[in-house]
Design goal:
Blueprint: H1 3-12, E1 16-21, E2 24-30, H2 36-63, E3 69-74, H3 85-98, E4 104-110, H4 114-123, H5 129-132, E5 135-138
Parallel strand pairs: 2-3, 3-4, 4-5
Antiparallel strand pairs: 1-2
Length: 139
């Protein structure tokens, strides 16, 4: 791992991380740990970190002959105060630039409240239709 990755990992591991599970790379995003002011202040670095994590998830999958990664969004204890539309759009754009539907297997969203369901209904217009089909809400 590069020094840049290790530096970013230590600084932002509370927001997201990559795990290996069933021969696939999994990107895990913890929404409850997102503070919009912190995100705004560190947006460029956080996006670079997420980009590197996606690459790492794909490397794990590629190691097993797979071309896709899974994403897990944990909403437990999250509220609209933790949501940052700019960050969402930029992460979505980054995934699309890296291959979009061609690299994302499934996006699991856990512990979604009615407030977060409403937020999803607002932001889904920014998500390509094929990607929307890959989003699964898990109770």
């Amino acid at each position: 791992m590069s020094d840049i990755f290790l530096h970013l990992y230590e600084k932002y591991k509370f927001i997201c991380e990559v795990k290996e599970y069933k021969s696939t790379g999994h990107l895990c995003l913890y929404i409850q740990n997102i503070n919009p002011k912190f995100i705004k202040k560190n947006l460029k670095e956080i996006l670079e970190f997420i980009f590197l994590l996606i690459k790492k998830a794909l490397e794990i999958s590629n190691k097993y002959g797979k071309k896709l990664f899974c994403s897990h969004v944990y909403l437990e204890n999250a509220s609209n105060k933790n949501f940052n539309l700019i960050l969402f759009k930029k992460i979505n754009n980054a995934i699309n630039k890296m291959g979009g539907d061609d690299i994302l297997e499934t996006c699991y969203i856990y512990n979604s409240s009615s407030i977060m369901q409403n937020i999803y209904n607002i932001i889904k217009i920014f998500i390509p239709p094929d990607t929307r089909k890959k989003i699964l809400f898990v109770k």
